[in-house]
Amino acid sequence: MINDIKDAFGHYFMDIYKERDVYGLVIERDDGYIDVDTYDYFAGYQFWPKRQKKIIKYIKGKVLDIGCGPGSHLLELKDRNYDVAGIDTSQLSVQICKKRGLKNIYPVALNSLDSKIGIFDTFLMLGNNFGLMKNEKKAREYLKKLSKVSNPEAVIIAETMDPYKTTNKFHKRYHKKNRENGRLAGQLRVRARYKIYKTNWMEYLLVSKGEMKKIIKNTDWKIDRFINSIVGPGYIAVLKKKK
């Protein structure tokens, strides 16, 4: 769980939830590049991107949303009678989820996940939350961890975007520098800022399909399918546990 002054996401979500004046959530990269986060974290199913709607048929059993935010994906699944749980490092996000009727929500980071929270059949990492894997090495460690807290036929449904599909010269420059320093092009170092609140600097990973295949090689997981965005670089990977 993070300190209140560092809970930029949580304060942003709480202002939306309580219908206060809301200012933009800013994502700052360590090269100075800034962007405003326009993702709708409270969107109901009818407003989900088409690629996210397509994942419903691959969800099964007990579901864990990793980085659940204010719980919008879990609410939809709860309404469909799935057994749902979520983890998030934001205490305010956990509070919002509970206020919205979700029970099994825990202020836990991915690296602290263990079987005390449960054994799961589906892991959700939507909204580009494959980025929480941080880097290539950590991703393999976390995939191993997920294997330990999952049933034999479990799936991971992970959303990301291909960093190479950009025309932005500042992104291209950043990717080039990363490769020169032995990192994946989409291995970002970012922080979120909202009003007076700002998160710690954190690693955040964007990968191409080829890079994802490389990352999961020699893990307990395999690619089942990719679900592409109609436009743009985003896509969702459905990973199945190897038998």
In words, what does this structure look like?
By secondary structure, the protein is an alpha/beta fold. The protein has a single domain (4-241), classed as Vaccinia Virus protein VP39 (Rossmann fold, 3-Layer(aba) Sandwich). It contains seven helices and twelve strands. It has helices at 8-17, 50-53, 72-79, 91-99, 136-148, 169-180, 209-216; strands spanning 26-29, 34-36, 62-66, 83-87, 105-106, 120-125, 150-161, 187-194, 197-198, 202-205, 221-228, 234-241. The protein has a seven-stranded mixed β-sheet, sandwiched between helices. Strands 1, 2, 8, 9 and 10 form a five-stranded antiparallel β-sheet that branches. Strand 4 (83-87), helix 4 and strand 5 (105-106) form a beta-alpha-beta unit. Helix 1 runs parallel beside helix 4 (91-99). The longest helix has 13 residues, at 136-148. The protein is globular, with a radius of gyration of 17 Å. It starts with 7 loop residues before the first helix and ends with a strand. The model has no long low-confidence stretch (mean pLDDT 97). This is Class I SAM-dependent methyltransferase. Residues 63-152 form the Methyltransferase domain.
Short description:
The protein is α/β, with parallel strands linked by helices.
Can you give keywords for this protein?
Rossmann fold, about 240 residues, five-stranded antiparallel β-sheet, 7 helices, methyltransferase, alpha/beta, seven-stranded mixed β-sheet
